[in-house]
Amino acid sequence: MDQHQHHRHAHGTVETQGASRHDKHAGHSVAMFRDKFWLSLGLTVPTVFWEPMVQDWFGYTAPQYPGSAFIPAFFGTIVFIYGGWVFLNGAIGELKARLPGMMTLISLAISVAFIYSVAVFFGFDGHPLWWELATLVTIMLLGHWIEMRSISQAQGALNELAKLLPDMAVRVMEGDRTEEVAVSDLKVDDVVLVRPGASIPADGVVISGKSAVNESMITGESSLVDKSDTSEVLGGTVNGQGSLRVRVVQTGQDTALAGIMRLVSQAQSSRSRVQALADRAAFLLTIVAIVAGAATLAAWSLLGAEIDFTITRVVTVLVIACPHALGLAVPLVTAISTTLGARNGLLIRDRRGLEEARNLDTVVFDKTGTLTLGAHRVVEIAAAEHSDPDAVLSLAAAVERDSEHPIAQALLNSVEDKGLVVPRSSSFESLAGKGVEAVVEGRRLSVGGPALLWERNVDLDKNMENASRSFGDNGQAAIYLLEDDTVLAVFAIADQVRPESKQAVSKLQSMGIEVVILTGDSEAVARSVGRELRIDTVFSGVLPDQKSDKIKELQAQGKRVAMVGDGVNDAPALVTADVGVAVGAGTDVAVEAGDVVLVRSDPRDIARIVTLSRATYRKMIQNLWWAAGYNIVAIPLAAGVLYWAGIVLAPAVGAVLMSTSTVIVAINAQLLRRLDMES
């Protein structure tokens, strides 16, 4: 499939999703309603212009020529067949499914008007409704065109995502030759050249070059991300000023971008409880409208009203009561909130999970890799008197430079995080089971654990001894830097708390949500993290298969619980929780467990989920109240209850009111785009 086909395919996916969630428009498109509206409008103008009643109202005389008297009937019939067929066909589908809805009501209204007008045309005593019929169909088409545009724009996330990938890529061949190829022709292990400002064509690993990449369109991360040798890059992200050579590791449907598109599509097609409520309300409103139409016919007939007046009242009732806005109220908010979430690094797999998030009162975090980095760092340094902590850290990293031990990686990563320079080292030697030794800046230095101290019979001064004991109490490893028999520093090595975690916990607590730690680590380690983050409730030593039991315990206390984990060993707990939040670890968006996936692995995004959930629910309820509430006033008015006061609604006015209510719902849903996700 070439890239242009890929774009068209994605667009087709969007329209299909719109159909599946808004089934009144299955197989319909924005262009169809637009074209039908403009042609029907062109046919409606002469229908109205040659209508004798309109001529009387405005005091003009339309040109008369043989057959001009038949213009309203002729053009009105064409509008009914051409413009009205989409409604008639939709009604057939609704009735086959035994779910009469707005298409049934519209079809009933225009069919009653058409059949009555045809009867008058062939001699029945009354006044035909050709101009009312034509304007009614035209206004209905305009309303549906506006609605379809709103739905299409709301679902634009898939189109926007599909357009992120470039059409072509520059593949590097043997001998450093390059050739331009279609992105769809790329294969795993191909090497591509990504020039400054170009989009990266596939997921891969940088093998040479240095640059900063804009990943905001996929991860939501606003700042540029530095890339150099061995860095992972994502297809669809935009390269900065440097040039990169990238080895392709994922193509096509296996890329992170394709995974995000699948999740967005899945979320837009998943149904929420509020949608089910809206569908039931729309069905009941359809029944109410049909009953109200029948009651209007009976009442005006008993009161002796003229037949054309009575039929006009019935048609107006059927039109104004169409549950159009009700049908649009929830799907449009759903589509916009899903798009908004995706742009902020929140991939919603199941709408019900997002809907439930507004009720949360407890958030349970798996510690490792969620609140912490999942990789060890130096979290505290106790240096000897007159020694600089950064300087002794650099010396220790220099000693460990040639070691593959996890402690060495923790020291080196910590130095890198701080941006410190690692001095040169030589004469590296591994001390089996005790540590390592090397010469740094002419000094013979050693790094190791308690066994190294014991072997050299080194005594710690009081400060060092207190620091070591404190580190041990917190479940942290104590690692020592020695010069001969002198201890220069002791380092606490542990899984470091993410810089964002304090802010995330504080934000949730300020929203009235209790935060809990759930981990398989020892109590000392778990309590240490809990103290640092000011989390009181800590469950430690919990095996993966026991995590779901802890969630059930909290739920048994009447709590609405969200579980945040990595989606692998936490899968049972994610499914058990009221809301499961899977950490996507940057690129792994194909997480099968959980209702929401965090692309950035940023715990602060949990509060954003709650904010989005609350705002989405508010918009849905506002729309439902408006869509259902306006009918309480509109239906009696359409039936003619204020006829005695000289207030009578024409069918076209009823159609305008109905379309206006739909537009108000659409505009209110669009206001969700202005949501501040940080609030």
From TrEMBL:
<dbReference type="InterPro" id="IPR023299">
    <property type="entry name" value="ATPase_P-typ_cyto_dom_N"/>
</dbReference>
<feature type="region of interest" description="Disordered">
    <location>
        <begin position="1"/>
        <end position="22"/>
    </location>
</feature>
<dbReference type="InterPro" id="IPR036412">
    <property type="entry name" value="HAD-like_sf"/>
</dbReference>
<dbReference type="InterPro" id="IPR027256">
    <property type="entry name" value="P-typ_ATPase_IB"/>
</dbReference>
<dbReference type="GO" id="GO:0055070">
    <property type="term" value="P:copper ion homeostasis"/>
</dbReference>
<keyword id="KW-0460">Magnesium</keyword>
<feature type="transmembrane region" description="Helical">
    <location>
        <begin position="37"/>
        <end position="58"/>
    </location>
</feature>
<feature type="transmembrane region" description="Helical">
    <location>
        <begin position="624"/>
        <end position="646"/>
    </location>
</feature>
<keyword id="KW-0479">Metal-binding</keyword>
<dbReference type="GO" id="GO:0043682">
    <property type="term" value="F:P-type divalent copper transporter activity"/>
</dbReference>
<dbReference type="InterPro" id="IPR059000">
    <property type="entry name" value="ATPase_P-type_domA"/>
</dbReference>
<dbReference type="GO" id="GO:0005507">
    <property type="term" value="F:copper ion binding"/>
</dbReference>
<keyword id="KW-1003">Cell membrane</keyword>
<dbReference type="GO" id="GO:0005886">
    <property type="term" value="C:plasma membrane"/>
</dbReference>
<keyword id="KW-0406">Ion transport</keyword>
<feature type="transmembrane region" description="Helical">
    <location>
        <begin position="652"/>
        <end position="672"/>
    </location>
</feature>
<protein>
    <submittedName>
        <fullName>Copper-translocating P-type ATPase</fullName>
    </submittedName>
</protein>
<keyword id="KW-0547">Nucleotide-binding</keyword>
<keyword id="KW-1133">Transmembrane helix</keyword>
<dbReference type="GO" id="GO:0016887">
    <property type="term" value="F:ATP hydrolysis activity"/>
</dbReference>
<feature type="transmembrane region" description="Helical">
    <location>
        <begin position="129"/>
        <end position="146"/>
    </location>
</feature>
<dbReference type="GO" id="GO:0005524">
    <property type="term" value="F:ATP binding"/>
</dbReference>
<feature type="compositionally biased region" description="Basic residues">
    <location>
        <begin position="1"/>
        <end position="11"/>
    </location>
</feature>
<dbReference type="InterPro" id="IPR001757">
    <property type="entry name" value="P_typ_ATPase"/>
</dbReference>
<keyword id="KW-0067">ATP-binding</keyword>
<feature type="transmembrane region" description="Helical">
    <location>
        <begin position="281"/>
        <end position="303"/>
    </location>
</feature>
<dbReference type="InterPro" id="IPR044492">
    <property type="entry name" value="P_typ_ATPase_HD_dom"/>
</dbReference>
<keyword id="KW-0812">Transmembrane</keyword>
<dbReference type="InterPro" id="IPR023298">
    <property type="entry name" value="ATPase_P-typ_TM_dom_sf"/>
</dbReference>
<feature type="transmembrane region" description="Helical">
    <location>
        <begin position="315"/>
        <end position="342"/>
    </location>
</feature>
<feature type="transmembrane region" description="Helical">
    <location>
        <begin position="104"/>
        <end position="123"/>
    </location>
</feature>
<keyword id="KW-0597">Phosphoprotein</keyword>
<feature type="transmembrane region" description="Helical">
    <location>
        <begin position="70"/>
        <end position="92"/>
    </location>
</feature>
<dbReference type="InterPro" id="IPR018303">
    <property type="entry name" value="ATPase_P-typ_P_site"/>
</dbReference>
<keyword id="KW-0472">Membrane</keyword>
<dbReference type="Pfam" id="PF00702">
    <property type="entry name" value="Hydrolase"/>
</dbReference>
<keyword id="KW-1278">Translocase</keyword>
<dbReference type="Pfam" id="PF00122">
    <property type="entry name" value="E1-E2_ATPase"/>
</dbReference>
<dbReference type="InterPro" id="IPR008250">
    <property type="entry name" value="ATPase_P-typ_transduc_dom_A_sf"/>
</dbReference>
<feature type="domain" description="P-type ATPase A">
    <location>
        <begin position="169"/>
        <end position="264"/>
    </location>
</feature>
<comment type="similarity">
    <text>Belongs to the cation transport ATPase (P-type) (TC 3.A.3) family. Type IB subfamily.</text>
</comment>
<keyword id="KW-0813">Transport</keyword>
